[in-house]
Automatic annotation (TrEMBL):
It is an enzyme of class 2 (transferase). It comes from Allgaiera indica. Keywords: Methyltransferase, S-adenosyl-L-methionine, Transferase. It holds the Pfam family Eco57I. InterPro entries: BREX_1_PglX, MethylTrfase_TaqI-like_dom, N4_N6_ade-DNA_methylase, SAM-dependent_MTases_sf. The keyword S-adenosyl-L-methionine applies. It catalyses: a 2'-deoxyadenosine in DNA + S-adenosyl-L-methionine = an N(6)-methyl-2'-deoxyadenosine in DNA + S-adenosyl-L-homocysteine + H(+). Residues 343-587 form the Type II methyltransferase M.TaqI-like domain. Signal peptide: none annotated. It comes from the Bacteria. GO terms for molecular function: site-specific DNA-methyltransferase (adenine-specific) activity. This is site-specific DNA-methyltransferase (adenine-specific).
């Protein structure tokens, strides 16, 4: 039955808060808070805390709690005790519902849904060890002390479970009992919430424990993600519950594969749905496998370790498979559980609570097969534990305590005593080797809660472990201090033995955490101990799992290790030290608890011995959700590939591209790389983008230079801002020219910052000799194929906008064509499967020698056409500095009706898009022939792949209905038209001249004579009010713009078309629709177009919109606010006051209640608006008096913040909280 995970997801995070709050409240009762700890005074049989008296017996638990808080901190201590009680109650709930409690009664609930737990009804019949039956009877007979009785019974139940599960149920006479909350029988108690929040049916499978654990820590995980993770937070940051089918795959292809290799006819094979049958192997591989495969296996000697066991999901699955193996070998079912727990299954984790749950889950599996196992006189000893830290312990003192008296040797003597009498050694000095051995066993776990099972036990320590075991033998009594030291060292001894052993199989879903989140201790440790795997915790665990096994290991990890360049060292190590048997490339959405593309995974099984010729099976499960992947794998519908890992050595960086074809592989072996023909280069990192980068429209355009060819020319130009290739989305041939970089005085400021931060600027400012040179640029990060552009000379380039340069005489168009072809896309998916197209990956693109001189002239011509078309496409948008104006105002496209003009425009670009598609296909075909790779690469290009912004098949989601898409396209174009009209109002553009007319600063140099029949606004202030208060507001001027640019006769029809395109049913009242658009939606669209760096700023009186106007950033000066007051705000107040008086007369004269109500409603609103306007006017006057000037070099984000609350959407634009 499927568990209702949504209920668990709702309950568990809230339970964590409730449990912690209950512990905190209980601690406060005993005078312990985060801020202070009250002193306790003993007084007879009582202790006095503050003004409260408590039984003296709480003194010791309270002292222990205080010690725990001093050691771990208040918050951590409360967290620990909270999860201890949470785990205990989960365990009891599971056991009571499965009938696993010896007395047969429910402890937390009642089978008849009564409000009181069933155990209370039978309290007098219980026979818990140490339970005071007389007191139980007295409390029961009293009838008013059920809460006290229940607390007593619950503690007794926990103590009774201690014998079988000491790891979860410690003897409750400590601080955890002290913090057990009161009011356990209340309807809102922790216990009642647990019982009522989760249906009993959901408790049928032990898997529920793992899900509850994951959801319990989910909010803690959210808190620490994205930060440097403290040691105590590593579990929360890294725990991830593995889907059951992936666990089955890993266990069956490690333990199951080990068994089947020795017993190929075993019936077990038919029971393992996720087992992958090995491919037929070459003769030499078969012989190698035969040599290393044991002829027989003893089930009792088979071992499986999970070094990151979490809540035990993998171990539980391994239990089932071990059980099947034992049954196949004829063992009695009742004997099997103990054998599995004590001899076969091993688990370690860094997290105490997770290890508790893992041990519990295994015991529950065993209890299902052996009802005696929990009540046995000798409970099974589990090999599952949480790694404990020795930090803070004095290893020297512990060693001296244990290695002291009792070490003797024969000492020659001249006195009366014969030589045969034993004498103490040299003043009883300890044996040095024993001291050192004990000390090292303790010290290797000094950072165990940080390093966990990645800790390696040195061979010298491993060899000494038997001696240490003898030293800490509990059978010899040494007194309290010695026994205490022995107990502590025995714990570390067990950890050392588990970590130094070899296991037949290791299976793990290790923690995922990149080094950006790692603390300094962990980073240093990984660099020293796991250099090949230091990039991530999971990659270090690949090395660790290999070291722990003598046979096979299976893991599920992020797929990045197979492909990313920074894992090249790990791949090289793997190829030399292990052998992949099979893998399922899971891709995104394999883990149901994680949506989107965040975690992309691969599950694999490998043998510990390398074998280059072994043909491994790979399944591509990168599409669909977890259930789609599971079903596809079970039905073997997934794309399947077979490849020997030796073939990866032929691929640059040894990428594990399992789908590689034979011809592709041979090309990698035989061809030179692109770096032999070109110079792909990594760009600069400014170290402070907010300071040095601007979207080009933010700054004074006259202070920019777009035409420099080298650094010397940039200096002599005196300019501050220069074009900057910074990457962008998928776009070929031309475009993504949006950014300027401050490279004034040859980048003096950027270089100085880099030098100050890193000691040398060359670490961040690289390849400066190529700045401003003509080359090819591309986005290093992509969600699709690589796409390259030729933007011409004059650019600097970014680390995410890598660029490629060529020697003089080389025709870069050849390589632009190649890199934008399907052939390059094919190879780049081998070189950069994660779509990280960095310069290093691009440099390894294989290029046959024929490309250098054998590319047909038609390809060059096609590149010219494609680049020209892409540039024209880019320049149709006003966010391009090459924008000339609205294309459909040109006579070749223009009609008297805007609707027809836009249709002509769309038809033109549909033809251009299809022509580009044909040209790209011709380029693909040419390179497929040059590479002789027709069987593995297609020349086909769909219209959706033609990356022109005016290609609607590319720019708009193809999933909608054609008429819906058509409506969106038309709507967007009309919005662009309205924006252009606003630009003409502001003086940015003109209908008399093409291109950018004014983008200076402070209105200096503004020439009103350049605007022809449609004049620019006098001051760059354009009102956008809901009512027509001014004759130069945006709606009025837009209507004028239509009348001037199209014929006056067609004005009504054109207005209607614009209105219908802006809003549904907008044509019913076109003027009102257009006015509403300017008032309510224009600025939102403007922000989106200009990427939250608007050039038309919206000054607003507030929510009631009494007054709003747009101000053109580049025409703003220190007198703009004063002019806004005089020309608009002050007159509007008078007009509003007059309108309010008029409405009062209308109300008095109204002939109907409807007319009266309408006038009253309008008047009430206007009264409020007038008040808002007066408040706005006061603030406006305050800022106007300051005569604020703008430094456009500071950018919109900084400048927008200078006007307080006068501007709309301030937080969205400035980024303020």
């Amino acid at each position: 039955m499927t568990i209702n995970r949504s209920a668990l997801k709702t309950y568990a995070p809230k339970a964590r808060k409730d449990f912690i709050a209950a512990m905190v409240a209980r601690a406060a009762k005993f005078g312990i808070t985060k801020k202070q700890t009250l002193e306790a005074r003993e007084q007879g049989d009582l202790i006095i805390i503050g003004s409260e008296a408590f039984p003296r017996k709480i003194a010791e638990p309270r002292r222990k709690l205080i010690s725990r808080i001093k050691l771990h901190g208040f918050d951590q201590a409360m967290e620990e005790v909270a999860y201890t009680w949470f785990n205990r109650l989960l365990a009891i709930r599971y056991m009571e519902l499965h009938g696993y409690l010896d007395h047969g009664y429910r402890v937390l609930s009642h089978p008849s849904d009564k409000a009181i737990p069933e155990i209370l009804e039978h309290a007098e019949h219980l026979d818990f060890p140490g339970l005071n039956k007389g007191k139980v009877v007295d409390l029961k007979l009293d009838g008013t002390k059920d809460a006290e009785l229940y607390r007593m019974l619950l503690i007794a139940q926990c103590n009774a479970l201690h014998r079988a599960m000491p790891f979860l149920f410690e003897r409750i006479d400590d601080e955890t009992e002290l913090l057990l909350p009161d009011n356990l029988l209340h309807s809102d108690s922790l216990i009642r919430k647990l019982v009522t929040s989760i249906d009993e049916a959901d408790w049928q499978e032990i898997e529920i424990i793992g899900w509850l654990y994951q959801f319990y820590i989910s909010e803690k995980k959210d808190e620490v993600m994205g930060k440097v993770v403290k040691s105590e937070d590593i579990p929360a940051a890294t725990q991830l519950f593995t889907p059951n089918w992936i666990v089955k795959y890993m266990v069956q292809n490690a333990l199951g594969a080990q068994w089947i290799a020795t017993y190929p006819e075993s019936p077990l094979k038919a029971e393992m749905d996720y087992y992958i049958e090995p491919a037929d192997q070459p003769d030499e591989v078969r012989q190698q496998l035969a040599d290393i495969t044991p002829q027989e296996l003893n089930p009792e000697e088979l071992t499986l370790m999970d070094p990151a066991c979490g809540s035990g999901h993998i171990l539980v699955e391994a239990y089932d498979l071990f059980k099947a193996i034992y049954l196949e070998r004829g063992y009695r079912l009742r004997d099997i559980p103990r054998l599995i727990l004590e001899k076969n299954i091993y688990g370690l984790d860094i997290d105490d609570r997770a290890a508790q749950m893992a041990g519990f889950a295994l015991l529950m599996k065993a209890r299902a097969d052996d009802r005696r196992i929990l009540s046995s006189d000798t409970p099974p000893v589990l090999n599952v534990m949480s790694i404990q830290d020795s930090k803070g312990l004095d290893a020297d003192e512990m060693a001296r305590t244990l290695v002291q008296d009792g070490r003797y040797e024969l000492v020659p003597s001249d006195d009366l005593l014969p030589e045969t009498v034993k004498q103490p050694m040299l003043s009883g000095a300890p044996v040095a080797d024993d001291l050192q051995g004990v000390k090292e066993v303790v010290e290797i776990f000094d950072r165990a809660k940080t390093y966990g099972t990645l800790i390696k036990v040195p061979q010298s320590v491993t060899e000494f472990l038997p001696k240490v075991e003898a030293i800490v033998d509990p059978s010899s009594d040494g007194g309290m201090f010695v026994d205490n030291a022995k107990a502590k060292v025995r714990l570390f001894l067990k950890q050392a033995k588990l970590l130094s052993a070899k296991y037949n199989c290791v299976v793990a879903n290790p923690p995922y955490m990149g080094m950006a989140a790692a603390n300094s201790d962990l980073k240093k440790f990984l660099s020293e101990e796991y250099n090949s795997g230091k990039i991530d915790l999971y990659s270090a665990f690949i090395l660790r799992c290999h070291a722990l096994t003598s046979g096979r290991f299976s893991m599920v990890v992020q797929h990045s290790w197979m492909f990313l360049s920074r894992f090249e060292g790990l791949r090289d190590w793997f190829l030399s030290n292990a052998s992949l048997s099979n893998a399922i490339h899971l891709g995104p959405r394999a883990f149901e608890a994680i949506s989107g593309e965040v975690v992309q995974s691969v599950a694999f099984s490998a043998a510990v011995a390398p074998c280059d010729g072994y043909l491994a099976n790979y399944f591509d499960a990168t599409r669909g959700n977890s259930e789609d992947k599971r079903q596809g794998f079970l039905a073997r519908r997934l794309p399947q590939f077979r490849i020997s890992q030796g073939e990866y050595r032929d691929i640059p960086r040894s990428n594990f591209v399992y789908w590689i074809g034979e011809r592709t592989s041979s090309i990698f072996r035989s061809c030179r790389s692109l770096e032999s023909f070109a110079k792909p280069r990594h760009g600069m990192v400014t170290s402070d983008n907010d300071r040095f980068l601007r979207l080009w429209w933010e700054v004074d355009f006259s202070n920019a230079n777009l035409k420099c060819h080298d650094r010397e020319e940039s200096v002599s130009s005196g300019a501050k801002w220069f074009p900057y290739n910074k990457g962008g989305g998928n776009r070929k041939w031309f475009g993504h020219n949006e950014y300027f970089v401050n490279w004034e005085n040859d980048g003096a400021e950027i270089i100085q910052l880099a030098a100050d931060k890193y000691g040398s600027p060359s670490r961040q400012i690289q390849n400066t000799q190529y700045y401003f040179k003509d080359g090819i640029t591309w986005s290093s990060l992509s969600s699709e194929n690589i796409s390259m552009r030729s933007n011409g000379p004059g650019f600097l380039f970014d680390s995410k906008g890598n660029s490629m340069f060529f020697d003089e005489g080389v025709d870069q168009r050849v390589y632009l064509a190649l890199c934008n072809s399907s052939v390059a896309a094919h190879f780049m998916h081998m070189l950069a499967p994660t779509l990280d197209f960095n310069a290093g990956a691009v440099a390894k693109l294989p290029v046959p020698d024929e490309v250098e001189n054998g590319v047909p002239a038609e390809v060059i011509s096609s590149v010219d056409q494609l680049r020209s078309t892409s540039r024209a496409d880019w320049d149709t948008f006003e966010t391009s500095w090459g924008f000339k104006g609205i294309d459909y105002l040109h006579p070749r496209l223009k009609d008297d009706r805007i609707s027809v003009s836009i249709r002509n425009f769309l038809e033109y670009w549909a033809l251009q898009s299809d022509s580009s598609r044909e040209l790209e296909e011709a380029i693909n075909e040419a390179f497929i022939k040059l590479y002789k790779i027709s069987g593995e690469v297609s020349d086909q290009v769909t219209l959706r792949e033609v990356s022109l912004a005016r290609n609607t098949s590319y720019s708009y989601d193809s999933g909608g209905k054609p008429e819906e898409i058509d409506g969106r396209v038309i709507g967007d174009i009309v919005r662009e038209f309205v924006s252009f009209a606003c630009g003409c109002m502001m003086g940015r553009y003109s209908i008399a001249e093409p291109g950018l007319i004014y983008a200076g600063s402070g209105n200096e140099g503004f020439d009103p004579s350049r605007y022809g029949a449609f004049l620019a606004d006098d001051d760059g202030i354009v009102p956008v009010t809901e009512s027509e208060w001014f004759d130069d507001d945006a709606a009025v001027r837009f209507e004028e713009f239509l009348r001037v640019t199209w014929s006056p006769e067609m004005l009504p029809e054109n207005l209607r078309f614009v209105a219908e395109s802006l809003a549904a049913n907008g044509g019913n009242d076109p003027q009102k629709t257009i006015r509403n658009y300017f008032s309510k939606s224009f600025f939102k669209d403007h922000q989106k177009t200009y990427k939250k760096r608007p050039i038309y700023w919206l000054f607003s009186s507030g929510k009631l919109k009494a007054f709003e106007c747009l101000v053109y950033l580049h025409r703003y000066n220190e007198s703009t606010l004063s002019r806004m007051r005089m020309e608009y705000v002050t007159p509007l107040q008078s007009r509003m006051a007059a309108r309010i008086d008029q409405l009062a007369d209308d109300i008095a004269a109204a002939s109907s209640s409807a007319a009266r109500n309408k006038a009253q409603k309008e008047r009430d609103l206007m009264v409020k608006q007038l008040e808002e306007l007066r408040v706005f006017d006061e603030e406006l006057r305050h800022f106007a008096d300051q005569r604020i000037t703008l430094d456009l070099d500071e950018g919109v984000k900084v400048n927008y913040a200078k006007f307080g609350n006068l501007l709309a959407d301030r937080k969205a634009i400035t980024g303020e909280k």
